[in-house]
Write a structure and sequence with these properties.
homodimer; alpha/beta; Rossmann fold; Luciferase, domain 3; GMP Synthetase, Chain A, domain 3; seven-stranded mixed beta sheet; globular; ATP-dep_AMP-bd_enzyme (chains A, B); AMP-bd_C (chains A, B); ligase (chains A, B)
Chain lengths: 526, 526
């Protein structure tokens, strides 16, 4: 039977082109130290991206060439989001907070030929370049140049000032790689996730659907999650497609910077990790009366479950907290919740299931806990450099490593990371549930529970706590017993000044476990 | 470079499966004569679709088999929307208002093997079956059976009652044909447009984006546009994906039926042609005080520009009028406007351009008028049975036959159909602009302007008018001259009881021209 639809590919450049033509006058902001460094329209973004594409081609960047970025949230980084994939090259966004050896490992894995580097991150580039032979060019995202032996140095601003705009982005196969992001690697080396043009466009559509995340035209988004990690949760792509205003905080944003930007430029939505939202709250309170948060109607907290006290505080300032579930491997959005007490329901085209230890699917009954698995056009099917079967996949589904139940209506409740469960005397203890409960105690501002090896019980929980006021161990034991069986009571409550965090702001349980297991614990659980 | 996203296809069945699992309890309504015949959840819809798929397989329906539907908006038709494409077969929705010879032509072109027929449309099926040798089975959408010589007859309700649910829909290539709709054929024979799974899913995503058409979860849609024409503008697919409530009016809905449904079931949005909205208004006024339209917040009018008076009337009842531009070939939504005075801006992934008579692209300046061309993953690339190049396409773009300008911000303004322009003495006269102006005259309720051949001027405009009160030709001439040059004044104002309409409710200019050109006109234009 003849007759069909046009075979038009889903391309990252089509999002930009739409913005140039239909939202051309819409103004975005790129900030530095809480001040606007540049207000730029989508038409200007298009011009930058087209010039960057032309300039990179001159440097030898071709279809498939990897271009690394060591950069904060800015107009220049955003131009790379479109200019690099636009010509079929691949933007490898490097998490600048990873240890240098992990960064070098990632650059070598990706075989980056060019590095785009913010001026303040040049020391990192200097440190890794000797160990990353694929790198031939370093482009400083500004008007200066680097002086790094063994590579050619360029200024981004000079490059695009001299380049002519690429008139037409090439028509690529939509399954062409568009960007790479490495997992944060809390266990072992980071793994590279390769996003395609197709997955990027579909994810942008999915997070712009009404009733969900709903990245919307005319609204204004302060992006406090890093463009160097999972494409800032897809917000830059979706906002461009929808003609929303992006407010990019620039290098090393401090809580004070955020408060200045919010007060002066009045974004509707604030997007980032709970840790950042907590710091903004802290700074706001320290400078009582100086700043105005009233424009923020929604706080989207991702990465981990927001503490209830933080949610309440923002609600007191008129901002609803929303969240979702996802990971680097899922682009990241797989579910979304209009609230904060669960992880919400799957987005369209995302399939979720929980399976038992034999891999058999469990019912959606809100009780049957198992490992969460995901399948979608925007879930990774294989990692960068993966050459054979991987334990991360099961029968075509991604194994997430999360323990979850699913309610009959599809609502996801993450119970724990598999590796964070405490196996005590043949019973499972959820570290996440313990943490959430502990954080409801008025004296506790932060809590992390880890398993430590135990002669008799195999493993026992230990709690690390940041406390605001004094509280005795006995009081804490009673508090835990008020909700859980007594064998859930941690063997120790360790007071610390701060909980160790990973490069993306998550609780770093590997470090806690390491430090904790150097001490020995007497058998005490009953 | 290894590492990529999962290669999951975009399938119509994935929309249904999402609804079954995530919106399973959401209740839709299927009506008859203004009463609810059946309230059904998405889980029940899934069960029906899976049983229908199994039953059709038993009748020999396979991958690629065409299944025609001669049916109104109902739960059974909706089950076919998912059950037929779910197994790789193709649902050919037949516009029941087309003349029988066009229906037979379409069935023969599509080579339908099975016809799904609403009981009241069996006379049409009886009339065409002798001329459509491909048809082997007629399934009556109800609990009765047909008695048509030469084909086997079945009852839909019996078939699905006896069938076991298909557990898993097959994984198809997303470019597999999902449905066929024929153009309404105002000139010549209708042409078949073949929608794919990919285009259907992408269109569903596009019309669910926030800030646009925004088919939204939890909202309720009274679908007054026919499921037999361009998939009811994609609303059934998008509503299923989003978990919105569908309110389907059933066979031969009268204005009174709509009023009953709106008053009792309080849908948020009413979707259909301006003609239907006008009839509902008329019936409401005739039964003053009996019905309540207050639930309707939005009236989405498509197919043609809504008359300003109708828009104002609905606004007076609290309902905002929205509209967009599209055609059978564009699935249909290509643009959308939150208002009604223009056709809005392109949806993401839709490219538009206007070209001059040599095919050269014109600027988006709000002034340069040319033929509108469209390109998108949900625009047709070739017609059913098309074997060679077609005049409908130009360099990979669809030629729409519409004359338009595009504003610098992408706002589309359709000026006319090419064939409805009047070429008088070397100048173009827009019949649409004349009609819109005439309908602003208080005495005129409907107007249609056509070109008739003229010895001296080549063509001259003639206006057909439905009037509410008396008005002289002189008054009308003055009224036209108040806005347009005098050569725009129609040579004749013909009073009629009703303007002829096509099977989809559009003004039937072909018929008007035919009737008008049998009369002769004296040269009078200056």
């Amino acid at each position: 039977m003849l007759g069909t639809m046009m075979d038009r590919p889903l391309l990252v450049s089509s999002l930009l082109q739409h913005a140039e033509r239909v939202h051309g006058d819409r103004v975005n902001l790129s900030c530095e130290a809480g001040e606007v460094r540049r207000a730029f329209t989508y038409r200007e973004l298009g011009s930058d991206a087209r010039r960057l594409a032309a300039a990179l081609s001159e440097l030898g960047v071709q279809h498939g060439t990897r271009v690394g970025s060591l950069a904060w949230n800015s107009d220049r980084h955003l131009a790379a989001y479109f200019g690099v994939p636009g010509i079929g090259a691949v933007l490898h966004t490097i998490n600048q907070r990873m240890p240098a050896e992990h960064i070098a490992y990632a650059v070598n894995q990706a075989e980056d030929r060019v590095l785009l580097v913010d001026a303040d991150l040049l020391p990192v580039a200097r440190q890794i370049v000797p160990a990353t032979p694929s790198v031939q060019h370093v482009v400083v995202l500004g008007d200066g140049e680097a002086d790094i032996p063994g590579v050619r140095s360029w200024s981004f601003d000079d490059l695009i000032a001299e380049a002519a705009e690429l008139a037409t982005f090439p028509e690529l196969d939509e399954r062409t790689a568009a960007s790479i992001c490495f997992t944060s690697g809390t266990t072992g080396l980071p793994k590279g996730v390769v996003y395609t043009h197709r997955s990027t466009v579909l994810h942008a559509l999915a997070i712009s659907l009404s009733g969900g995340v709903a990245i919307s035209p005319e609204r204004s988004y302060l992006v406090a999650c890093q463009m160097s990690h999972v494409n800032s949760w897809g917000v830059p792509h979706a906002a461009t497609m929808q003609g929303a205003r992006l407010v990019l905080p620039g290098p090393h944003p401090s809580p004070l910077d955020y408060l200045k930007i919010i007060t002066r430029h009045r974004p509707d939505m604030l997007i980032g990790a709970p840790a950042v939202m907590g710091l903004i709250r802290h700074e706001y309170l320290a400078r009582r009366g100086e700043f105005d948060l009233s424009s923020i109607r929604t706080v989207w907290m991702g990465g981990q479950t927001p503490p209830p006290a933080l949610v309440e505080w923002w609600a007191g300032h008129g901002a609803n907290t929303v969240n979702g579930w996802g990971m680097t491997e899922t682009h990241p959005m797989a579910t979304f919740s209009q609230g904060h007490t669960d992880q919400g329901r799957p987005l369209p085209l995302v399939e979720l299931r929980v399976v038992d230890e034999e891999g058999v699917e469990l019912p959606w009954d809100g009780r049957s806990a198992g490992e969460l698995e995901a399948r979608s056009p925007w879930v990774t099917g294989s990692y960068l450099g993966q050459t054979g079967p991987s334990e991360s996949f099961h029968d075509g589904w991604l194994r997430t490593g999360d323990v979850a139940v699913i309610e009959p209506d599809g609502t996801l409740r993450i119970k724990d990371r598999f590796k964070d469960l405490v196996k005590s005397g043949g019973e499972w203890i959820s570290s996440v549930e313990l943490e959430n409960h502990l954080m409801e105690h008025p004296a506790i501002t932060e809590a992390a529970v880890v398993a430590v090896p135990h002669e008799k019980w195999q493993e026992r929980p230990v709690a690390w706590l940041v406390t605001a006021t004094d509280v005795t161990d006995d009081e804490l034991r009673d508090f835990v017993r008020s909700k859980f069986p007594s064998y859930w009571v941690p063997d120790a409550f360790v007071r610390v000044d701060a909980i160790p965090k990973t490069s993306v702001g998550k609780v770093d349980k590997a470090t806690i476990r390491k430090q904790q297991t150097t001490s020995s614990l007497a058998p005490s659980a009953g």
